[in-house]
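Encode chain A's predicted structure.
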Amino acid sequence: MITIQAQKRLLGVFLSIGILVMAMAPVTLAGQDGEFNADINWQKFTGTQLKIAVCSHPAQRILESMLGEFEALTGIKVTFDRYEETILNQKLATQMLTESSTYNACMLFLMEIPEWASQGWLEDLMPYLNNPKLTDKSWYDLDDFYAPFIKLGRGIDPSMVKPWGSEDKLYGLPLTGEISIVYYRKDLFEKYGVMKPPTSWGEFYDAVKKLTVDNVYGYVGRRRRMQSVCQWTGYLFSWGGRWFDEDWNPVIDSPEAIESLQFYHDLEKFASPDIVDFGFPECLANFAEGKAGFWLDMSVGQSSLEDPSFSKVVGKVGYAPCPVGKAGLKGFGWTWLIAIPSATKDKEAAWYFLQWATSKEVFRKGLMSVGCPRESIVNSKEYADRFPKDWIYACSTMLQPSVFVAVPMPLVPKSGELMDILGIKAAPVVSGIKTPAEALHEAAKEWRRIIAEYR
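Encoded structure for chain A:
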């Protein structure tokens, strides 16, 4: 997630069948129980070739393994160009600036929406969704997505009183659904007498301290510059802090923000000394090696931690909602979106790919494994049979609209620049060179300058 490296995995399979299609008639895949029986002509764009820019990510790998199914259904040939996250964003931004695009669709980094949509670089998907010749709305069922993820696709930041986005626009559809949760070692709980998952930050601190014993650190978490401040989001909002007030004035140096950052860094006393260089992959590997008792991060780590080929703690991991803070139970989420550049060709064919890739059936067959934003899938028996009950409970709890109150950066124009500044200013806190108050006051001053220039 974030100008950061993402990771995870899985796969999907397809059974190709001959389909007899009458022109302009809806298509149903024989032998597949009518799973793609939307009331549209799936073969309307037969022979079209689409080129799609994607991030090297588990969602990409799953979709790529299922492309044969889409091509058999639609007659549309799809090619993926894969890039590491930062390279993908740079390549897309370069094409957007020249108002041309060699890509018919792309995986979209969430914080790019306000900037790119403001420039007219992203296609509004609502006209495609509302066109009965292109979309069977009852089959696609947009309302099945958890509301916060669709709001993010509209550019609406749940933490903003006056968000940048609006309900009448839609710039991307959710491919993943990630939420902040607590990972903990059940075996260490039993060994050292921790009776239950902590429900307050005080209990969390005490349990982390208790599990720092016998060559195991009580805590692991991201501390690599920008990733570190993005993960601080959960603490910030739990303490009652925010990015901005209702008038878009930065308040990242409020007393609540300073206190939450102090607590966040106090946990480093119980972490590996090299935590300063940890991003998501390093945290995942550290926890999977059995070197930490607690890890608070996005929910997508579960599949790797239960994979015997990767993890030494299979069957020993418990999952819980985040602790309750001064503002109540608060957390943050994330999604990778898929979008259509405004400057591209064959947009209607690209829309067919978008609605197929984010359909209930594709999530059911594979994408559910990387975090599912569709409520019907999360509530299904297949989902319940596949994933640990405590993980499902933790995710479902943190996905409630009153709990899912933020994303790891504000969804406003210049968001990338704002978070870079925050990461730079906050980095010396890890090494003790600056206090949280000093770092946040300096960052807030720069944020105010940037927002003033934008206005």
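The domain at 49-177+335-378 is CATH 3.40.190.10 (D-Maltodextrin-Binding Protein; domain 2).
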